[in-house]
Amino acid sequence: MKYDVGTKAKPRALKTPPQSADYTMHLEEIGGRELLVCTVGKTVLHYDPRCIADLHAMLKAHGDWMELGSADEQKDAKAGTVEAWGRAATNPIGGFYGLKKGLRGRFGMYVPPLMEALGLAEVTHDARGNKMRAR
Asked: How many domains is the chain built from?
């Protein structure tokens, strides 16, 4: 399924769950592969675009709010969070949805607001401890 996540020429403008930082997302073909590109300041992260449908399906099956739990790749993700699921060997791709070595984390920070903007999820916007659930 295709989602309107923006293009390189016209990326989707988003805010982190606490509404404290701006970033953009778009789909782009890089090296013959379609990637979800997240640009935060000068930092560019890549995610497998399947994460949108896969996360939505997981949240639907979960049926309740789930903590986001964002963490850098070098840090362990808190168990039972969106971040932990986004890097688990048991998710549909069998590991990290983040594709740029060293920058594969922060799935729980950057993907949930996109899901909210696409109408697929609700996300809380507190200073800390944000959660999401499927729509």
From this structure: 1
